[in-house]
């Protein structure tokens, strides 16, 4: 199964051809088994293979099938939470450690792109977090102060300074985070997969792990076509846990995020939109994102599904949003629509769990996974080699189910529909 425009939108059009990989067959052994072919699993596989470890990755469907092939492509430094909130929730030691690790994660992404010559339309000019209201501007001021206190290169731009960078007068200012940038998400997944394969990792697709059990010191992972035995297992199924790991869904609140892309814009219009190469998103609770791809398509995203009954509602909102934010574009069609599932925790902090001896997972990226996935994959690789708690920036906890998580997820979906419906004539 390969990714299609229905599930992965324009990213399938502009990504290089997908890596040629096959399902696992028969009985195999490895030192470290990785489950999931997104950024976390691929980064872990690549780092382990580079360190000379025998490593095998099993992906249920195709490389980048989950969030890693569908996302917006904002390479952010940090979480949705403000830095001080992370410290309030996690305490100084873990909180500051997590902020340091995530603050450094865009640099790791760009280092991987350079080292392995990954072609993924990256730009490293920062990101613009745009104030949708005077209240949003105040929150950005707090973010600026809290990050600057930690020495991060972020700068709050007034409306007058931000407008030419966004190419829009619709916002009250923007926070420029110079650590950040953007990528073509599916292309980055394919590039990591190629690099991991070249480094010696064995990657298998269409190989869902349907059950697992431990026999002494060895894990046995069953797939429809074969069995893999391993001393260590890294579960990197994150937002798309399936089959043997579907219980992970119980510990996260799901919501959908859609994106629509326009055809390539004419050069005269293109150069007026986000001319500095930064992608943008806003401070609204039902947030929106805006970016140009390498061919000058405008990609607009927000909360909700781009399928079924919600398709027309969100499409009309997107067209209206383009008209309001970038009136210079004029009447336009939308070419591709797709969406993906983001999974949240109640406190917006990711989780590391040790399921059992030798089986570890990181999950709940709360919508921030390009930097974190690449970084946490690297750290989990180190952990399987050293077993040092120093590698992990958070405590290892037990998985806890969230009650009424489906209802909570519906709250986002219905809230987004109501908001987009109310906004259709703003
Ligand atoms: C629409 C959307 C927009 C987003 N925008 C951004 C953004 O702009 N910036 C950002 O940083 N983050 C963003 N995110 C979040 C980011 O995409 C994810 O956090 C990140 O991709 C997670 O990577 P991962 O490797 O941990 O998991 P995933 O990419 O979800 O990969 C998990 C993989 O595990 C596989 N799997 C599941 N069960 C099994 C099994 N039993 N056996 C074998 N394989 C299995 C799945 O098929 C899947 O391919 C967004 C997410 C979405 C959905």
Ions and ligands: flavin-adenine dinucleotide
Reported for the largest beta sheet, the result is: 9 strands, mixed
Examine the coordinates and then state which fold CATH places here, giving the name of the CATH topology of the largest domain. Answer: FAD/NAD(P)-binding domain
- Helix content range: 25-40%
Kindly report the name of the CATH homologous superfamily of the largest domain.
FAD/NAD(P)-binding domain
Description:
With 426 residues, the protein is an alpha/beta fold. The chain folds into two domains: 183 residues, FAD/NAD(P)-binding domain (3-Layer(bba) Sandwich); 169 residues, D-Amino Acid Oxidase, subunit A, domain 2 (D-Amino Acid Oxidase, Chain A, domain 2, 2-Layer Sandwich). The chain contains twelve helices and 19 strands. Strands 1, 2, 8, 9, 10, 11, 17, 18 and 19 form a nine-stranded mixed sheet that branches. The chain has an eight-stranded mixed sheet with strand order 5-6-4-13-14-15-12-16, with helices on both faces. Strands 3-7 form a two-stranded antiparallel sheet. A hairpin with a 2-residue loop joins strand 17 and strand 18. The structure holds flavin-adenine dinucleotide. Flavin-adenine dinucleotide binds next to helix 3, strand 16 and helix 11. The site of flavin-adenine dinucleotide (FAD) has 44 residues, from helix 3, strand 16 and helix 11.
């Amino acid at each position: 199964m390969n990714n299609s425009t229905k599930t992965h939108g324009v990213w399938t059009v502009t990504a290089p051809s997908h890596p040629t990989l096959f399902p696992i067959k028969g009985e195999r052994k490895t030192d470290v088994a990785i489950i999931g072919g997104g950024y976390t699993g691929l980064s872990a596989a690549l780092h382990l293979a580079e360190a000379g470890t025998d490593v095998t990755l099993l992906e249920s469907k195709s490389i980048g099938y989950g969030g890693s092939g569908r996302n917006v492509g904002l390479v952010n430094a940090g979480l949705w939470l403000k830095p001080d909130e992370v410290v309030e929730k996690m305490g100084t030691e873990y909180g500051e450690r997590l902020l340091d690790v995530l603050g450094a994660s865009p640099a790791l992404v760009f280092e991987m792109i350079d080292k392995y010559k990954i072609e993924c339309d990256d730009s490293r000019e920062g990101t613009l977090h745009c104030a949708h209201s005077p209240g949003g501007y105040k929150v950005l001021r707090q973010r600026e102060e809290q990050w600057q206190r930690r020495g991060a290169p972020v700068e709050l731009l007034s409306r007058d300074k931000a407008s030419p960078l966004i190419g829009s007068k619709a916002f009250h200012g923007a926070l420029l985070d110079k650590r950040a940038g953007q990528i073509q998400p599916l292309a980055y997944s394919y590039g990591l997969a190629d690099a991991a394969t070249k480094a010696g990792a064995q990657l298998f697709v269409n190989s869902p792990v349907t059950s697992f059990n431990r026999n002494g010191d060895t894990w046995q992972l069953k797939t429809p076509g074969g069995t893999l035995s391993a001393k260590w297992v890294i579960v990197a199924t994150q937002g798309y846990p399936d089959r043997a790991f579907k219980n992970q869904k119980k510990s996260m609140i799901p919501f959908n995020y859609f994106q629509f892309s326009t055809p390539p814009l004419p050069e005269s219009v293109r150069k007026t939109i986000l001319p500095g190469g930064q992608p943008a998103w806003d401070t609204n609770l039902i947030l929106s994102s805006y970016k140009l791809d390498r061919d000058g398509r405008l990609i607009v995203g927000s909360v909700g599904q781009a399928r079924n009954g919600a398709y027309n509602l969100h499409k009309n909102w997107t067209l209206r949003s383009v008209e309001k934010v970038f009136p210079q574009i004029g009447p336009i069609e939308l070419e591709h629509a797709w969406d993906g599932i983001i999974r949240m925790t109640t406190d917006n902090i990711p989780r590391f769990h040790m399921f059992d001896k030798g089986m570890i997972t990181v999950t709940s990226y709360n919508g921030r996974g390009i930097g974190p996935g690449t970084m946490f994959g690297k750290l989990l690789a180190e952990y399987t080699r050293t077993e040092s708690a120093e590698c992990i920036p958070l405590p290892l906890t037990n998985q806890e189910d969230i009650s009424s998580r489906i209802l909570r997820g519906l709250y986002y979906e219905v809230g987004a529909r109501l908001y987009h419906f109310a906004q259709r004539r703003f």
